[in-house]
Amino acid sequence: MTHSLRLSWTSVEAAATQVPVQPEKLSNYDLILQCQSGHRPDKAAFGELMRRYQSHVEKVLYHLAPDWQDRADLAQEVWIRVYRNIKRLNEPGKFRGWLSRIATNLFYDELRKRKRHTSPLSLDAPLTMDDGEMDWEIASESPGPDEDLTTREFYDQLRDAIADLPEAFRTTIVLREIQGMAYEEIAELTGVSLGTVKSRIARARLRLQSQLQNYLDGV
Q1: Which among 59, 85, 207, 208 would be 20 to 30 A from 92, CA to CA?
Q2: CA distance 108 to 32
Q3: How many domains does the chain have?
Q4: In terms of pLDDT, which residue wins out, 65 or 131?
């Protein structure tokens, strides 16, 4: 009987020391928890996290700085910041939004350092109008098979209209319509009042609507 119990306990100990689940088999939530569990993020788990979210980081940086040639370097810096601060994320389920904000904050840090006035923002998206309001959707990275010449021309007109906006307007409307940030978050990030944020978005929409309507009337 004693021998049998000893064998059973040995089996329990062996089961307890089994190789942990591979990172690629974990859910996003559990993967983030594993990155937070040790003194430093587990290398394999963090590598898998990067693999899953790298395209998201690249998309955020593209919309913010499409003409910057060093976006790959910025993306690398984003992940360095994530590595250093992931333990501070109290709600793993909100990792995607947290990651977007890290990328956006990095962009602003770099923009301030460069101290230059360019057109770093773009809105490569279709535009519809409903009761005077404008709803935005992020366009696919590759044109669909049913996309005709008129649609492509409209995209060109939209990009030109965005490029003509003052930098503050471009920044604000991208953060709102593409990043999906709340007005309060935009105000905190850009360092202006809530009223200024709302005013910039409203004025940007009116200017875009006017320019695009002129194009549509001529089609």
Answers
A1: 59
A2: 26
A3: 2
A4: 65
